[in-house]
Backbone:
């Protein structure tokens, strides 16, 4: 009998180096999972939904790796790390992916006209114009960025201004307006007609703000007309985009106009 066999105790166990029996695919899960989470976190601001998919995939791969990892007597580590990963999944989902970031809209029209020739809000009024107010509000504790939307109503908008100076926004006739029309007379002759550029003809005014701070509001004043008909605007619409919680969000709303 060799000396090596004599020196070995009958009850001695041969230890297996940690990780030597782990399938290569599990080691791949560990490496790719960690890389996916890192890559996804870096790409959130530019490619939000792709980045979210990478983060979720990375967490799933790490959970698979933990299922087959050998911890020996420290098996409690498997459960502890799993709980941490589940907590990261929950916090990321609630705090980033599915976090609400709305813009609320309120609109009302003044039922008492401004005096003839009076000026208010940078607009010269007459008794044929209606004073329409639109409030765009950020009701959350988060700052929004790059607000860009078009507001419109079912009446002609003669002029539109922002009443307050904070947040600072630009309000102008929507650049997409097609400010001409073609009239065909009884003889079939076509004639180009240029309508007044001060009236929107249903294309709205564009509102752009670089920053939309938390718990703030944008108050717009619109002078509307129905070409002499004594009626107020009935609806207001707002359509556009803004950035909040690392991604671009859209708004496409239509609300009734209240009377005050």
Residues:
């Amino acid at each position: 009998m060799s000396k090596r066999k004599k020196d070995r105790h009958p009850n001695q166990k041969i230890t297996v180096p940690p990780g030597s029996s782990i399938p290569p695919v599990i080691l791949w899960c560990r490496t790719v999972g960690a890389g996916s989470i890192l890559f996804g976190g870096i790409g959130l601001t530019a490619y939000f939904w792709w980045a979210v998919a990478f983060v979720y995939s990375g967490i799933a791969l790490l959970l698979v790796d933990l299922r087959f990892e050998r911890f020996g007597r420290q098996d409690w580590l498997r459960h502890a790390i799993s709980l941490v990963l589940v907590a990261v999944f929950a916090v990321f989902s609630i705090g980033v992916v599915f976090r609400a970031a709305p813009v609320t809209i309120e609109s009302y029209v003044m039922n008492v006209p401004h005096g003839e020739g009076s000026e208010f809000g940078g607009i010269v009024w007459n008794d044929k114009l209606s004073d329409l107010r639109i409030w765009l509000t950020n009701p959350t504790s988060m700052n929004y960025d790059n607000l860009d939307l078009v507001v419109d109503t079912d009446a002609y908008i003669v002029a539109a201004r922002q009443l307050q100076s904070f947040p600072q926004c630009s309000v102008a006739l929507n650049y997409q307006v097609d400010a001409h029309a073609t009239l065909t007379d009884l003889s079939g002759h076509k004639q180009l007609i240029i309508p007044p550029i001060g009236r929107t003809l249903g294309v709205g005014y564009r509102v752009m703000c670089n920053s939309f701070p938390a718990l703030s509001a944008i108050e717009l004043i619109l002078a509307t007309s129905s070409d002499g008909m004594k009626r107020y605007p009935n609806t207001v619409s707002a359509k556009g985009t803004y950035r909040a919680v690392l991604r671009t969000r859209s708004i496409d709303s239509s609300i009734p106009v209240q009377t005050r």
